[in-house]
What does this fold into?
Amino acid sequence: MSINVRFFASLKERIGSAALEIDAQGITTARDVWTSASGQEADEEMLVAINKEYAALDRAVADGDEVAFFPPVTGG
It folds into this structure.
């Protein structure tokens, strides 16, 4: 049982990896995935995609899902 986790842009630099595989045991939401993979609390502004569809941090995840994290979009 595992979840594939991907990090993009500054989050990839912050975590030190572009991708990880984590044990799905006890993981129920995208927020749980972030906490397990990073050891940090989730930034509410962070963007999340589950199986290539944008989702909320509190959306449920399942064994075999791909969860991707993106930094907040900024611009000027």
